[in-house]
């Protein structure tokens, strides 16, 4: 799993990790039943605290995307629904727009121009 974090992103790291995992599931990199790497390995690869990764995994478990099994690790419970994936991407787009000084209304105007 190739996850990256944006250190300039204002969102908390656990939300960024959860979003990256959600996206990987939604795009098919992980299917229901697939096991995720251990939280320690993910944390080491990202250079963050393992508790941050665990918090992201718990959030995704609470959403029903992941399941924790004692002795078997964390696996994908179901595929991310399209709406959840779009909401995640829309949040990221709003955050990016704010960095460049665009408001929510400006972004809506841009999207309307595209349709």
From TrEMBL:
Cross-referenced Pfam families: GntR
Native organism: [Actinomadura] parvosata subsp. kistnae
SMART domains found in the cross-reference section: HTH_GNTR
Protein name: GntR family transcriptional regulator
Keywords, alphabetical: DNA-binding, Transcription, Transcription regulation
Gene Ontology MF term list: DNA binding; DNA-binding transcription factor activity
PROSITE patterns documented for this protein: HTH_GNTR
Ranges where the HTH gntR-type domain occurs: 11-79
């Amino acid at each position: 799993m190739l996850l990256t974090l944006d250190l300039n992103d204002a969102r908390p790291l656990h939300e960024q990790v959860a979003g990256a995992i959600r996206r990987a599931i939604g795009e098919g990199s992980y299917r229901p039943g697939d096991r995720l790497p251990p939280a320690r390995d993910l944390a080491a690869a990202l250079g963050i605290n393992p508790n941050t990764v665990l918090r992201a995994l718990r959030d995704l478990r609470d959403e029903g995307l992941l399941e924790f099994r004692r002795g078997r690790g964390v696996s994908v419970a179901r595929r991310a629904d399209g709406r959840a994936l779009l909401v995640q991407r829309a949040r990221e787009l709003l955050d990016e727009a704010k960095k460049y000084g665009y408001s929510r209304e400006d972004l809506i105007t841009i999207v309307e121009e595209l349709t």
